[in-house]
Amino acid sequence: MSKILITGATGGLGGTTARFLRDKVSAENIFVLVRDLESDKAKALKNDGFNLRKGDYDDFEGLKKAFNGIDVLYFVSASDISKRIPQHKNVVEAAKESNIKHILYTSTVRNDESSEAPLFAVVDAHLKTEDWIKKSDLTYTLLRHNLYAEVIPMFLGSKEQLLQSKSIYLPTGTGRTSFVPREDFAEAEANILAAAEKFENQVLEFNGSESTSFEAVAALLTHILNQPIDYVSPDVEEFEKTMASFGLPEDIIGMLTMFSLGIANGEFDQKSDDLEKVLGRKTKSIGKFLNDVYA
User: Does 73 share its domain with 95?
Assistant: First the structure.
């Protein structure tokens, strides 16, 4: 049986994928990468029966040691966008030197790969990483993710904040997104890890079953909260000034602006049904997701 290493295991996607995979593969063949073996999350993973390997994307030699004896690597993209390029290069090169047989990488869907695109900083790191993987001669599976549904409450705030503002205020225009709840990504990718040989050298685009605008999200929230929730799409200058007046840090404003403009630009309005095929069902509806979060 192949030995599988899951990176990002103390995060939402990696940890959830590991737990789905445990229902399909013996835990003795599942290894998880953690930065701190003594952290509470690492100890919880150990108590769940997973084998722990210590590693950090910044530490090339440490990654090679962690990857020793591993057959299949589930490579979750780094959370810090500004550090992705050097960190991802470390992971790919360490995987090659450690004789990893198959690497699965969580990338992103996109329409516009130009340097003028709103999400160029995000897309460029993924493009480079995909290219390094393809040139490494490793067997690969590229998993291009649409946006997590969890970014909706991250962008909109809590139920209490929504009831106070009674509006969604984002420069997303009429852009639509095929949102995917994190658990659907994790379940599908556990399915793939359990039968990785069926997905060798494939590029899969993982989109939600619905294409949703923030205007539609406002309508759904109006029903869920039984209060009118308006949708306002300001221009970028007005949006950034308004967010700054509320005391939001500059980097948070930049992130909100970048992803909002990416949505407006159609980056996430994707139609591929690869995810439905791997799951064997439709993804969780955005109405149900929002109801679970806000009802």
Answer: yes
pLDDT surpassing 90 at residue 208: yes
- 186 located within any domain: no
What range defines the domain where residue 81 resides? 4-145
Same domain, 160 and 262: yes
The CATH number given to whatever domain includes residue 174 is: 3.90.25.10
Buried b (16+ CB within 10 A) or exposed e, 2-38: ebbbbbbbbeebbbbbbbbbbeebeeeebbbbbbeee
Its pTM stands at: 0.96
The total of structural domains in the chain comes to 2
157 & 289 share domain? yes
Average pLDDT over residues 2-12: 95
Residue 91: count of CB within 10 angstroms of its CB:
27
Long-range contacts of 161-165 (CB under 8 A, 24+ apart): 162/221, 162/225, 162/229, 162/294, 163/225, 163/227
Q: pLDDT grade, residue 261 (50/70/90)?
A: very high
